[in-house]
Structures are given as C-alpha cells and as structure tokens.
Amino acid sequence: MNIIGGKNASTNKRRPLFLYYFEAHLSKTDALRRERYFKTAKGKTTLRQITRGSLFKKR
Known about the structure:
By secondary structure, the protein is an all-alpha fold. It has two helices and no strands. It has helices at 28-38, 41-51.
C-alpha cells in the first residue's frame, strides 16, 4: 500500500492530508489501548480538547 504516493483509494481524493496530532507508544498493547479509548465518547471529548484550536488558524 503506497500511502505517500497518493495511490491509496480511500484517501486519494482527500489530498493533501494534514497530521495535527501524534502519539508514540513503546508497546503495541499501550497503543491499541489508547486507540480504543479514543473511540469511546469520553475519548472523543478528550481528543477534541487536546486538538482544540489546532485545526484553524488564529487571527
């Protein structure tokens, strides 16, 4: 799958992509646990609070 080259059919029409939040984990277990948390209602609220203001330019 060539994501960087823009050949992935699911994201090809939504270019350019913009990474506005990133987390690194030492273990796959921790990363999967955090991902499951972000899919809950409380996790979505937390993610919105973390990324608040980062999607829009401040004037």
